Amino acid sequence: MRILLLGYGKMGRSIESIALGRGHEIVGKIDMNNAGDLDSLDASKVDVAIEFSQPDAAFGNISKCLEKGIPVVSGTTGWLDKKPEIEKLCKKKGGAFFYASNFSIGVNIFFKVNAFLAKMMDAYPEYDVKVDEIHHTEKKDAPSGTAITLAEGVIDNMVRKQYWQNENVDKDEALSILSYREPDVPGTHTVTYHSEIDDIVIHHAAHTRKGFALGAVLVGEWLPAQKGVKTMDDFLKL
Ligand SMILES: NC(=O)C1=CN([C@@H]2O[C@H](COP(=O)(O)OP(=O)(O)OC[C@H]3O[C@@H](n4cnc5c(N)ncnc54)[C@H](OP(=O)(O)O)[C@@H]3O)[C@@H](O)[C@H]2O)C=CC1
Ligand SMILES: O=C(O)C1=N[C@H](C(=O)O)C[C@H](O)C1
């Protein structure tokens, strides 16, 4: 597979290492310094683009690739207000686009457990629920994309929670997401149900970025044979 890396920071480098180990070729690396090179890129030399850049760069990167007919795997968080536009462009161009807030298999299992637990806890209003996330201090967005997906999983399955806020809020209908930044933490997420009597806690802690990077490469191997807007549910069939 000939892979174009959009974003060559912590994730781009980790994806490069996994991709080379699986026998793939890296045909280009785009970061802030050479972002203009994407405009003149020859799309016939690329099978798939893997995009882990930053919130203000993702939309431009992805739309340029889709315009050129390059399938795109994106993991950048913090730009999702513009995702509907990308999905429209993908359909218009007959292309392939994949987004996930988290590419780790473990987190995607955790998402399913979270939705199941929220449905069960809907019948027990004595429990309040919150989401905590901890990431490294260089992270540009808050809350994390993963925390937002977890919050959406609760809200979709629990009648009493209607929206999330990125602060501690004491309202029955609001779900608090609390964000913490600490050196070197790859990504830790916790969902806690608290009552006067006890706590029920589900927790995922990434030990390294390998799980995110491997997931992105595996999706990159799969996506070029697909058409349309795809998600982890299409890929993993959990
Ligand atoms: N979905 C998932 O599973 C995961 C998602 N992420 C997300 O991926 C993104 C990247 O994370 P991470 O690698 O840790 O961040 P880094 O800050 O380490 O890397 C970001 C990279 O993007 C580059 N960049 C900046 N502007 C552009 C541009 N216009 N075009 C292309 N590249 C550009 C930066 O270049 P320069 O170095 O020159 O500034 C840098 O190389 C974040 O949004 C993060 O939340 C992270 C882990 C897992
Ligand atoms: O920025 C990161 O590092 C991570 N970002 C993703 C997110 O915002 O959820 C995924 C992972 O937690 C690491």
Question: What does this protein look like?
Answer:
The chain has 238 residues and is an alpha/beta fold. It has 2 domains: 2-103 and 210-236, Rossmann fold (3-Layer(aba) Sandwich), CATH 3.40.50; 105-205, 2-Layer Sandwich (Dihydrodipicolinate Reductase, domain 2). It has helices at residues 10-21, 55-67, 83-93, 105-121, 145-155, 210-222, 232-236, and strands spanning 2-6, 25-30, 48-51, 72-74, 96-99, 128-135, 163-165, 174-181, 188-194, 199-205, 228-230. The strands form 2 sheets. It has a 6-stranded parallel β-sheet with strand order 2-1-3-4-5-11, sandwiched between helices. Strands 7-8-6-9-10 form a 5-stranded mixed β-sheet, covered by helices on one side. Strand 3 (48-51), helix 2 (55-67) and strand 4 form a beta-alpha-beta unit. It starts with a strand and ends with a helix. The mean pLDDT is 97. The chain binds NADPH dihydro-nicotinamide-adenine-dinucleotide phosphate and ligand LZUJQKHR.
